[in-house]
Design a protein that fits this description.
Layout (H helix, E strand, L loop, with lengths): L1 H17 L10 E8 L14 E20 L13 E5 L7 E3 L3 E2 L4 E5 L2 E18 L8 H10 L3 E9 L4 E8 L1 E3 L6 H11 L17 H14 L7 H14 L4 H25 L10 H18 L25 H15 L7 H13 L3 H24 L13 H23 L2 H23 L8 H19 L16 H18 L9 E2 L2 H9 L4 E6 L4 H11 L2 H9 L3 E6 L7 H12 L7 E5 L8 E4 L4 H9 L2
Parallel strand pairs: 1-10, 11-13, 12-13
Antiparallel strand pairs: 1-2, 2-7, 3-8, 4-7, 5-7, 6-7, 8-9, 12-14, 14-15
Helix pairs in contact: 4-9, 4-10, 5-8, 5-11, 6-8, 6-10, 7-11, 7-12, 9-10, 12-13, 12-14
Length: 638
């Protein structure tokens, strides 16, 4: 009952805003255009009184700057108001039949008190196939358009248009004209294909971009397997190498059990990501998550270097008593799987791109179970090599037997983990670096203090834990600006975060005064700057990247910043911009970059988009890792 009352309150609030004013619909305009089919066949269910393939498509675009409407598939509920599009002819004997409209641009999903709202922000695209009743599809496109328009088609949109202040129902007619060519049709149909789960005509599931389901599942599996060799995950793979030395020559059942626990850890992370319906790299856009990951990896490094041990059997692959190499244990195997996966996901993998596009379309359709299945396939691909080794431990017989040399190996792996901490620091918001360093010092002290207990059993462990916890809490309080405690919203204590932020601000002001902030190549993306350059007739290339994305850095160093490519950009007069997706926050830059990514396929990096003045809504898009030759070919054709 409380949940229903809460939803009812939200609905009443929604109605009050709806009746408030008509500002939301200001600038609202919609137009339809008929585009020749160009040999395309539709996945739509063909009406009973139509024949053959579609002869054309009707593309509808709506624009409502500063406002939003809801999708065609929006479920009814508190605030939910699905948009409806229709085409009618004055005469019921029209030779043309227009199919159902489908959304051809991405939506932004918002949780409204437990109810998901699918919103189109600023604009939308939708398409519908057009059939002839007689099935004749050989007519000249120009004559076909004349005949269609002579039938007097009239479009109608029924929507709810909202801005930050009010919502208002909109029911308007819109004109239908003939499109100049079919060049703009393919991106719309490609999005529809990627967004559809089932072919209404056959009832069978289909995959993104028209690819067979088995191919996308194969991409997901092998993409997950490739995650094991991505730069992000290599430091933590050292933990598994340590456990492999333990498994060599041991009981088959024991080895398989440990690797099964490791697999369970991998699948746990992918299950959480699927249930939350977030992308693989979504977590690393949050500074708080980076802080937690940095602390965990740092503590693991100290464990491998012998600063501390814990008596829980098998935790982090640690030792038991005075043994050189104790048994790993199920908890340790599971924990390694979790940490390895969390460090691997921001890297992504080339083969994962098609599967992730498919998964993104499933998310938008609310098919959480299907998303869960795809993510499990990725996780099983990542775990496959270790399951094979667990099933056949004789494969590890070539490894040397454990000995004193492993102490050195463990120490080296600890330093490798410290490199991972440095990588996390690099992608962290600047204001958080100094307080996080202080937090790592507190963790170091706590691990050192607790580690001393293993050499002096007479000490009381509870007392040591209390001291460590007190030091840790004090460092947190004086390092980070936690949720405000004062009525005016300020934090009552001086912190390293605020002090370092002030220093960065002074640094930035001095750099601006000295002219050191002038951007030449690859200047920071801004929506106003971007639109201004297109209006001047310039082609604009936007590199969507993130500091935590290792693939992005490889692509930038090997391709985008290459001297030959840079020269080609200059010769073509192309303006180059960087869309920084490192942090997902409420800043204007983050909203603008996120909106552009979602408009053209989802929040995944690396992505290079090249916008031309002739077709600003139809950019050339290169996703994932690509070669210099591929980019050169695209640029030379501009």
């Amino acid at each position: 009952m409380p949940k229903r009352l809460f939803r009812g309150f939200l609905f009443l609030l929604f109605l009050a805003l709806t009746l408030r004013s008509a500002e939301a619909r200001e600038g609202f305009r919609v137009q339809g255009r008929l585009i020749p089919a160009g040999g395309e066949t539709a996945a739509w269910e063909r009406p009973a009184d139509a024949a053959g393939n579609p002869v054309a498509y009707l593309a509808v675009r709506g624009e409502f700057p500063g406002a939003h409407i809801y999708s065609l598939t929006q479920k009814k509920g508190p605030g939910g108001y699905p948009t409806a599009l229709s085409i009618r002819f004055p005469s019921e004997e029209s030779p043309f039949i227009v199919g159902a409209f489908r959304g051809a641009s991405p939506t932004t999903n918002v949780d409204f008190g437990g109810f998901v709202l699918e919103e189109w922000i600023d604009r939308f695209d939708a398409v519908a196939p057009v059939w002839r009743r007689d099935g004749n599809s050989d007519a000249d496109p120009g004559l076909l358009a004349e005949e269609f328009l002579s039938c007097g088609p009239e479009g109608t949109i029924d929507a709810l248009c909202c801005d930050d202040h009010a919502c208002e129902p909109v029911r308007e007619t819109f004109p239908v004209t003939a499109g100049a060519d079919s060049a703009g049709l393919e991106p719309l149909l490609a999005f529809v294909r990627a967004s559809e789960l089932f072919d209404p005509g056959t009832g069978q599931a289909k995959a993104a971009a028209g690819a067979p389901i088995w191919r996308n599942l194969l991409y997901a599996f092998f993409g997950g397997m490739i995650l094991n060799i991505m730069p992000c995950v290599l430091p933590v793979i050292g933990l598994k190498i340590v456990s492999f030395f333990e498994q060599a020559g041991k009981n088959r059942a024991r080895a398989f059990y440990l690797n099964l626990c490791y697999t369970a850890g991998i699948l746990t992370v992918f299950t959480v990501l699927a249930v939350l319906s977030v992308g693989l790299s979504y977590l690393f856009t949050y500074g708080a998550f980076q802080i937690v990951m940095g602390c965990i990896v740092f503590a693991m490094a100290l464990n491998l270097m012998g600063v501390w041990e814990i008596t829980l059997p098998g935790f982090l692959g640690g030792k038991r008593s005075n043994a050189l190499m104790g048994k790993e244990g199920g908890i340790g195997g599971w924990f390694k799987g979790v940490i390895t996966t969390l460090l691997a996901i921001p890297c992504g993998a080339p083969l994962l791109s098609p599967a992730l596009v498919w998964t993104d379309s499933l998310m938008k359709s609310g098919e959480t179970v299907s998303v869960l299945f795809i993510y499990w396939v990725i996780g099983l691909g990542m775990a496959a090599p270790f399951l094979v080794i667990g099933a056949f431990p004789e494969l590890l017989r070539f490894l040397p037997k454990p000995g004193k040399w492993m102490e050195t190996f463990r120490g080296v792996m600890g330093f490798v983990l410290l490199l991972a901490v440095i990588w996390i620091f690099y992608s962290m918001p600047l204001a958080l670096i100094l307080p996080t360093a202080a937090l790592l010092a507190a963790i170091w002290f706590a691990c050192w203090l607790l580690g001393r207990n293993q050499f002096d059993p007479g000490r009381k462990p509870l007392r040591l834990w209390l001291i460590a916890a007190a030091v840790f809490a004090a460092v947190v309080l004086f390092s980070f600006e936690l949720p405000p405690l004062r009525s005016d919203g300020s934090y009552p204590l001086p912190t390293l975060q605020s002090a370092f932020q002030e220093k960065l601000t002074r640094w930035g002001v001095r750099a601006a005064r000295e002219g050191e902030l002038v951007q030449k190549d690859w200047r920071l993306f801004g929506q106003g700057d971007f639109e201004e350059e297109l209006a001047r007739g310039k082609t604009v290339a936007v590199d969507f990247t993130a500091d935590w994305c290792m693939n992005c850095k490889v692509l930038e160093a090997a391709v985008l910043r290459d001297a030959e490519i840079a020269q080609l950009f200059r010769e073509k007069g192309i303006v180059t911009m960087t869309g920084d997706w490192t942090q997902r926050d409420e800043s204007e830059e983050s909203r603008e970059v996120g909106a552009l990514l979602r408009r053209y396929g989802g929040e995944q990096v690396p992505v290079l988009m090249i916008f031309t003045p002739a077709a600003p809504e139809e950019p050339i898009i290169l996703r994932g890792l690509f070669t210099k030759e591929t980019l050169k070919e695209k640029l030379k054709n501009l």
